[in-house]
Amino acid sequence: SFVADCCFHVHSSVSVDVVGKLGCIPHDLVNEFEMEPAARALLLLIFSPCKQIASQTHNCLLEALKPHGSRYMELLVHSLEMVMHSSVNGAFDQLRVVIALMSLASCSNLSPYQDYIIQCGGPRVLSSIIRKHSSAGLRISRSSIVSHTLDKYDSRTCCSDHRDGWEGMDIILFFAMCSFAELAKNSDFLLEIRQTSEVQCSLETFLDLLNGRGFGSGVQWFVAHILRCFGMYGFPSKFGSRVRKQLNVDKYADLRLMLPDGEYLQAHKVILAARCPLLLVPTETASGSNKSRRASCADEDLEQLCTKFSNVVRLSSRVHGCCMKKLMEFAYTGFVEVDHDHVKHLKILAKLSNLQTLTFLLSGKRPKWGSAVATCDFSSALESAGHPF
C-alpha cells in the first residue's frame, strides 16, 4: 500500500542517517540535537507493536549496518566505556550518552550484532552504568537536555506529555536498562552474566529498582523483563510480602484447594476474588462463560460475592501441583520465582486464571511502551470495609 511504501522510505532514511553519523561520534552540538530525535524515532520504530513497521525497520537497519556494522558496535560500546570512567557533566555530555544508549538499544535488537556487542564488553559496561545511576539518584529527564521539548508548540506535535513519566527522571538509566533487556535474550549474554562475580550484585541492583520509588514505569518493566531470565517474575512489594505470610495458613483461611496428589492449600476467598476470581467455584451450577464470571466478580461487592463460592475446590488431575502453588504465590504477592521446567505449565494456568501480568511476563514479550506497572492490587477487597488502600 501507499502508506507502507512511505513508512519503508522513512525507515531507510532514519536508519542510514543515524548509523552513518555514529561512526565518528560527532562533537558538534547542533549535530547532536539533530541526532537525538532521529535515534529516538529509530528505536520506537523497532519497538513498535505493529509487526510490519518493526520488521521493515529491522531490515532497513540491518542493511544500513552492512558495510561497517561490527565497527559501529565497537565504537558504541567504547564511547560508553569512556563515559563510565569519567564524570558526565552538562546537558551536552548527557545528550551524547543518551544517543549512544538509544543506538545501542536499537542495534541490540539485531541478532547478527548481539555477539559483537557482547564480545566488546557490552554487558559489563551496561551493568556499571545501571549500578551507578540506580544509586546516584540523578535527575536527567529528556526535557532537561533536549531544548525543543521545552517549546510547548514543538513538543505537542512530536513528544508525548507522559513520556518522562514512563522513562523516569533518569533517561540514561532507562535506555541502559532498555539495551540490557534486549541483550538478555541472547544465551551467550546470560552465560557471561551468570559466570561473573558481579551477578549477585546485578540482581540486587535490579531488585532494588523494582522495589524503589521514583523510578519510571518503563525502568521497572524492563527490570522485570530481565529478571525473567533468572527465573523471577513480577513486581515485588512490601505489602505483597506481608500478604504472602497468610498463604497456606489455617488462621482466617476459608478455602481449601485440593491438589491432584492429595495435598491441599489453605487460601482466602476475598484475596482470590480480588486477584483471580476464576479459581473460585460457585456453590451453585455456574452458567455463562468465564468472561461473564469475571464481569460478575467485578460488579458485585466482594464480601457478598465470597458467600457464593464453595469452601473446597478440587483441581483436575491435569493441574501441575507445584505450578499451582506458584500461581497462588503470585496471586498473593505479585512476584514469584519459577524453575525453567515449570514455565510452560505455569503459563497455561496463568492464562486460564486470567492473571494477565504473569501470563505476559512468562511469554517473554518485550514490555509495551507506555504501559503502567502492574501492582499487587487488593483495593477491591478492602473498599467494602471502608479501609483505604
What does it look like?
This protein is mainly α and 389 residues long. It folds into two domains: 2-230, Leucine-rich Repeat Variant; 239-385, Potassium Channel Kv1.1, Chain A. Helices cover 61% and strands 4% of the residues. It contains 22 helices and five strands. The protein has helices at residues 2-22, 29-46, 51-65, 69-84, 90-108, 111-119, 122-136, 142-145, 152-158, 163-167, 171-183, 187-195, 199-211, 217-227, 238-244, 269-275, 290-299, 302-306, 321-333, 343-352, 356-363, 379-382, and strands spanning 232-234, 255-258, 264-267, 312-314, 335-337. The strands form two sheets. A three-stranded mixed sheet has the order 3-2-4. The N and C termini lie far apart (51 Å). Mean pLDDT is 77; it is low at 1-16, 22-27 and 153-162. InterPro entries: At1g04390-like, BTB/POZ_dom, SKP1/BTB/POZ_sf. Pathway: Protein modification; protein ubiquitination. Residues 253-340 form the BTB domain.
Keywords:
Leucine-rich Repeat Variant, Potassium Channel Kv1.1, Chain A, single chain, mainly alpha, 2 domains, 389 residues, three-stranded mixed β-sheet
* Share of residues in strands: under 5%
Helical content (DSSP H or I, runs of 4+): 55-70%
Which overall shape is indicated by the principal axes computed on the Cα atoms?
Answer: elongated
CATH level 1 class label of the largest domain:
Mainly Alpha
Q: Output the structural class.
A: mainly alpha
Protein name: BTB domain-containing protein
Pfam family, one: BTB
Domain BTB: 253-340
Pathway: Protein modification; protein ubiquitination
